[in-house]
Fold these 3 entries.
Entry 1:
Amino acid sequence: MTISQVDRYGFDQPAVMCAECGLGFLSPRLTEAAYADFYEATYRPLVSAYHGRNIDAITVQDDQRGYATELVAFLRATLPRAPATILDVGGSTGVVAGAVRDALGGIPTVLDPAPGELAVAAGAGMETIEGFAEDLNADNRTWDLVLLCQTIDHLLDVRGTLEALRAAMAPDSHAFIDILDLDYALQAQGAIERVIKVDHPYYLTRATAEAFFSTTGFRVVAERLSHDGHWGFLLARGAPAAPDPVALRDHADRLVRDIWRRRAAS
């Protein structure tokens, strides 16, 4: 069902929600090639104008440092052992991977589609791979800790990417993945039209994220909700399992009712 016709930037961008599980997504959406052009030329100027401040490969590092501090504290408390190798998917300038390396050890690799941001990571001595998360082909390489930080909402293929990340995990390794929780964002913004944005093809909640994880063979080891509504999960490999369809349908019903209630009250 359609839940919005425009996004927060004013673009005509329809968003829909699955009535069976509560997963939100853009439809129709930009093609992979169009998104590549968008991130190359439009994304940073657009979010800079929206927030009223310059956001580029240099200034974004300030926000990333605060995020990295919180993540390191969580990983230090929940990881059973320090990682020898780290893969940060969508890792931007490498600030987060570098913070994890400095705190816990491990050799970091950063994958990101933005060459300008990868240049910053390379300048900090990190291995870099240019590309989208969906294009990850590890060529039988594995890592002890795989990070997907503030990135899953930007993916074009959530399930395929999760399967690729699982394949890139060494035995007894872990992944950290966080989502911008739709429940939290809706409460914080007050209306679905202020949550939807062209750069987020998907809109997950804790329930739909856990459904993706169980389906693709992850099990949740620990979790946290950050101050800005990002629900983070420390994951280990497990056996793929089907989620509870009744619980997901109830979840979807509640989400839709909340969206309509807020629209009626505005």
Note: DSSP finds eight helices and eleven strands in the chain.
Entry 2:
Amino acid sequence: MICGIDEAGRGPVIGPMVVAGVWIEESDEEKLLRAGVKDSKTLTPGRREEIAAYIKNNFIHEVVVIEASDIDDLRKTMTINELEAYIFARVANKNFARIYFIDSAGNDSKEFGEMIKKNLKYGEVICEHKADENYPVVSAASIIAKVERDRQIKKISEELEKIINKPLGSGYPSDEKTIEFIREWFEKFNEFPPHTRKSWKTLERIKQKKLF
């Protein structure tokens, strides 16, 4: 039994981070490939939905959603890499695998792998950059995580957009629609929107711009 673990939503200023794990028999990798499993970023949203349904119906999987407020709380005592490693280990520990293939966060994949091992109950860790491209089981996890993250953002958008009648965007700081949404919300209510990561520096910059 092997497991792949990946995340979606590490960097956004709005919305949760989602971590997913998928467990397969090593001999089942070919089934994933035949189903079209590959790095989630290379697939259309519709195709991701189809493949995610196939994975969920045929393989053991786990999904953990870390809300923005929980990310803020955890960031008080740990870095974003430590936070991610902690959640990856939490997902890994839900089911046994001989090897856990991890898509590395940060610059040092060895260091990130060691962070995970500290909280791992069993098995060994192979932690690499671009593991979501190189290992089908990690690609499968990336698809599950991305589909759930998109679902969460859609729900948040439907909740918040009707209040100020403006598109929320992707939730990422690089998205001008997201920044404009936060700025207008702050102008109107003198506070940041729900589901916003208050520990992100993006918000401080928006606040300072209003003050000066």
Note: The two ends are 57 Å apart (CA to CA).
Entry 3:
Amino acid sequence: MKSGAPHPRSRRPAEKKARAARRLVAITAGEPAGIGPDLCLALARIELRLPVVVIADRALLEARARALRLAVRCVEFLGRESVVARRGQISVLHVPLATSAVAGRPDPANSSAVLRSLEIAVDGCMAGTFDAMATAPVHKAVINDAGFAFTGHTEFLAQRTGVERVVMMLVGGGMRVALATTHLALKDVAASISRAGLEAVLRILRRDLADRFAIPKPRMLVAGLNPHAGESGHLGREEIEIIIPVLDKLRREGYDIAGPLPADTLFQPQRLKACDCVLAMYHDQGLPVLKYASFGGGVNVTLGLPIIRTSVDHGTALDLAGTGKADPGSLVAAVRLAARLAARARATPPA
């Protein structure tokens, strides 16, 4: 299973790089007290060779740069033409915080600015100002403490773009792992899996693997919900009553799907070599395996949106904020993948 790049036969490497380099990626800095600002500043120290604009409080970035002793120049974003991919410089679309941010100490008062930066990025992608967006981590609990109902980026993006259903997929470690359910308490997972919902997830997954990742006939492995995929109904009937009927229906339509398979033996190298994506039934069924293989370099991709959105594979790491120890690898990978997907989207007009 290939990880992030589109299908190798889809385009020559030099052509892909040239197209990707022209795509403007908006980056939201996430929780101001977390490592998001540090990661955004780190991009200016890397030969990224991609035009990016950071949506954040400019004073925060400048203060964090001083604290980290980074010679980074923050340049005001004045439109696409003003953005230059230059080492030691980042373009900033200023969104003021309500109060000064202190590294490691999140303040709910700044949650409105965090959400506003997301709104600007989404709306800019919808309007064509940006070609894609990549997000640094937010602190869900702090946003909720501020009085905003917020379960995560994935759900926020679906609502903002007017999409009924989206799919969360992580890319890394040679794997793609998508989720049938996202941020739910474990006790609520089984009740949330329905035939209609699972079918919708698989249709989105197949379509975006084909359209965004240039895999003409994606091969998918589907995990069972219960141990041993239900053990013929002795350990649960969700496989028999929900999952198997959906997979059989889609196979009759030409889908290349194997499953439901026991999750404890699904992630074997032999199986992964023969597939393009794994669909896990819930968050902690599939993601621990992928994150073990790729933590710090994995990318979260939201499928089913009318825009391209990628994200880091980690949290706010408040203990590392302002220390200079945060690894920007996942954000770098997220930005590069966003640019590649955007290049593919522009090169393939909708039917």
Note: The chain has 13 helices and twelve strands.
